Amino acid sequence: MADDNDQVKAVEDEENEPHEPPRGTLLIMIGYLLVTITLWMQAYLTLLHNGGLPPL
Fold it and tell me: For residue 29, what is the DSSP state?
């Protein structure tokens, strides 16, 4: 029984340890947003250069 309590306390201690913020996820998200914005801007500027959208 004492071993079970020690294991439970060890797991609780690991769960309560302070962790660093997930920087990798943030960098991937920012990179994805920059690529998406760049591609949309390229499409928009190409449309403007060609005279905008054709009339329906």
Answer: H
